[in-house]
Specification:
single chain, 38 residues, mainly alpha, 84% helix, 0% strand, rod-shaped, CytC_ox_assmbl_put, membrane, transmembrane, Cytochrome oxidase small assembly protein, transmembrane helix
Length: 38
């Protein structure tokens, strides 16, 4: 059972959204540490 091209595109889009959310959280965490020391 192979995914259709449309299903692959939806999965890729979801993966990019989740990855960008993770990056935003990571950047925010690093910025908070840099700003407040801990």
């Amino acid at each position: 059972m192979r995914p259709t091209p449309e299903q692959r595109r939806k999965n890729l889009r979801l993966a990019l959204i989740l990855a960008s959310v993770a990056v935003i959280f990571g950047v925010g965490f690093v910025a908070k540490i840099a700003a407040f020391g801990f």
